[in-house]
Records
---
Amino acid sequence: MIDVARIDHWAASGSGPFHRASTPAKLLFLLFVVASAVITRNPYSLMAGYGLLLAVAAASRLPWFRVMGLSWYAALFAILYAISFRGGGWLAALFIVKAITPSFAMLMLIVSTPYPKIFSLFSALLPEILAAGLFMTYRTLFILLDMMDNFASAIRLRGGFSPGSLYKNSANISKGIGMLLVRAVERASRLYAVMVVRGYSGSMAEKGTVRFQREDWLPLGTGMAVLMLVLIWK
Amino acid sequence: MTHMHIPDGILPVGLWLFGLIVMVLAVGFSLFQLRGMDMVRKIPLLGALSAAMLVAMSLEILPIFYHINLSVVAGILLGPALGFLAAFIANLILAFMGHGGITVIGLNTLLLGSEAVLGHTLFHLFKRLPVFWRSATATVLTLFMTTMALIGIVAVSHIDPELLSHGAEHGHTGQVSVRTFAIMVVSLGVIGWTIEAAITGAVVRFISQVKPDLLDHALHRDKEGKQPRGNMP
């Protein structure tokens, strides 16, 4: 399960060195790690890179253990893909580490950067409807998660969840999702009305600016170190 | 295929670059199709349904721990153009949660977005069926086709001689078996398609009973009240 609320809490409440770095520097860090994963043909160098990321995350007081667990989701496709190659353990290890390393770097970025900061950079690149759609999705997401939590509690209290009964669970979840969708549309319309009253005229995202600062040495240095590791240890 | 998000670093560079280019073209085409619509009203709607997709993805159905994604529902409710944009937004946010890669965001969006487009198209093709079966059939066929597309992507990606030759240096032959991948994905997918179809059918039936105007795309009309081409039912 994707715990969006927890990720948002980590991003907004942390104060470690990774949190203090600028968003463009962290995006460059991500770019370096993704480039490393794309170019490497050696699982050991990328494993070392993954280890380095773990160490930096722990030293920066990021929730490294939880982030590590989340990064392993990406391994699912990699494992199936590796099996289809019949390339043995070496190739499987390469595919898995290629999948989890960029995923870990991405998670390091989002658990240390509030979403509005990331989206404001996107707003400079994306068309208005997409940039604003991202913001609106983010705003609505937490409202809907809260509504879904209430729905889950209500249905449990009324005996609607039965472990092992797929038919009953699916039927109840379907009704919950249907209700959620209807309410999501109603909320969106109400939100729209409020935004218009407050002067919304199609543009809402503050454009992000690229500005580096002293604290950026950590993400930039880490990203470059992973890339160098992969380039040197072929 | 639903719930199979391709991560970074695995597919050949040419393939994910191709995916990014096609995605940019598809997003551009969707925006072009939506040009006549009242964008200011559509942005909250787009956000609400993209958020609903993300919330649905965070739900697990016990006892098989299956995630649904509601891409077909989004396609049916939003129309193909706006549905594709919703898929793009959902994918972008998922990528930022480590749930699918950045470089492959093009391919992942094409897969999820094609579910929205195909779902909408098939839903309107089966007009004679009751709403539940109409949406359920559209979902199964859509997921079957997108799973085939995923297998196609994997088949194309196996043409990566550099990777295979490097594997051979370490004593591994790297024999290609798309068939193995297809068998695994389809056998896992069949259970998923059935659940997704049942839920999609029930959700669309519920909406048709309590808020039928959503299925008529009443919210998608432009400022003059005309139905835009990208969202014609």
Note: Residues 218-223, 227-233 of chain B have pLDDT under 50 and may be disordered.
---
Amino acid sequence: MSAGKAEPAEPGLPKGQGIRQSMSDLHIWAGLLVGWILYAMFLTGTVSYFRDETSQWMRPELPAQHQPPDSAEVAERVAATLATVAAASSQWSIGLPTERSNIASAFWRNPQAQGRRAFQSGTFDPATGQALQVRETKGGDFFFRFHFDLHYMSPLWGRWIAGFCAMFMLVAIISGVITHKKIFIDFFTFRWGKGQRSWLDAHNMLSVFGLPFHFMITYSGLVTLMLMYMPWGSDAAFKTPVERQAMTSQMSAFVPAGKPTGTKAPMVPVADVVRQAQERWGRDNIERVTINNPGDAAARIVVVRGEAGRVSVSPQYLLFDGVTGKLVEAKDKVGPAAETRGVLYALHLGRFADTVTRWLYFLVSLAGTAMVGTGLVMWTVKRRARLPDPDKPYFGFRLVERLNIASIAGLPVAMAAFLWSNRLLPQGLAQRAEWEIHLFFIVWALMLAHAVLRPARRAWVEQLTLGAALLVLLPVLNAITTQRPLWRSIAEGDWVFAGYELGLWALAALLATLAVRTARHRPRARPVRKTAPAAQPSAAAAVGEGA
Amino acid sequence: MTHLALFMLCLAGFAALALGMERTQEDLFGRALTSATVRRLRVAGWVVLLAALACAVRAQGWSLGLVSYSGHTSLAAGVVFGALVLYGRLKPSR
């Protein structure tokens, strides 16, 4: 955090030092205040770069997908199902499988309901178009939603909290760069086994190498929800419903259903219009097909372009007459302001990325998680050296220390428990998908209790070990409970399953390394504070939960 | 292929920049290099990094190119850093 000089600035120091000192305080306290939530947002956000792969792994009944099915046919099949289950609906919207996702999803407007319940949703088997008959799970969507909605509260509250934390993160990044003016001079410097100095080097390294990413991800994260955080500009500029709809259409491919005529009319086959879009954008680059007023003379079909290969989420779609199949409107660009938002949004999500770029996103984002984690740990490492009595730290110190354990080591345990519950909960359990999530939070709460009850260092070692064990055993559990053991996945070239489980092992190795290092760590010189208050800070700083 | 080339260029660039730092030279060679060599290493490092940027933009366009360039520089710097740390750890046992 601070460049090793956190003593209050003395009066009469040069101005530069004063600014760096105040920036250091800002960095420390802004970082600490939101550090735990930021860590959770960062870690769950990081694994969300493999959101579709997580979802695939959590639905092992669905066969491995070597090539995505033809979107035109899938759209046709799901539309046929919706025509029976949602016949009276004024709007169906079908999310199509992609190279990474092997399910179709849909939501449709429920004519009998208003407000939040106005939409129903479901998941569908691309091969049959029927509702998915596999274990109920939220899959990777849970981590994705959690990283900005949190849970057990209205998404609105979650997003305000997430935005507050992201704003502090931005403050911490900028004040951090000013505080550690030496980070660019100390580039590539790591002083091993020097206690606080080593933590600082590691923290700097994790921050600086990924600095463009960390800044981008925080800023663009705020941009994704900017109209919620700061609605006043758009509220003042766009007042009538028509104006508001014009603004929305710059950001979203959602086309509201117009008034139906009331006259029935046969629909053009959905597959035919999707094929027209495929000719324009490529076979596997269709994201969504929305059908407004199906079966009515005023039916409209909107085919939305996928995000592969373009760094923007700005809407690009083709609007067809649902009865004649004629192209009514082709939307392929938006205004510059909307496009800026579209680009930043896409940069945050990284959905355009090819496999290599996705791994780069994942790794640098993981470094960002570690940056937040090392920052949190440093707060205690630095203060432990100055404790009057290291055996009886003051309340604030204990609080930070225990919360650090429960978040940094406890969250990975809870996330692994979420995957375990996916394999172990019985198939027919009522609200099975919700119970997977409940178990995640129950295990996390247990980790907090454990962190409070155990001595700090033991708690670190035990939770890191537990996390590593849970992750290592997940492929074993999968081999026992499904027909898709790791060796078969590798033999059959199913790289989603194989890659996922090898990735779990890599993360397990990371946690195990941290556990071993923490267990082996021996403070070299425990300072005898009561007799020698001026003990060497560098030696004292080594008394950490260091890893 | 583009990704591999990009990564190797970034790796070479950061390796040259790291070698251009006195602390690294002390660790690796036990002495500081001449200032002429240091200057050449630094220029080479920056030129190679800029060349990598040019490659990225040429091959993938500005938007995708900048994104993957940013990822490759982060990873390459991390790898150079890791190699230096590892070297420092292994050296005393020789």
Note: Chain B has three helices and no strands.
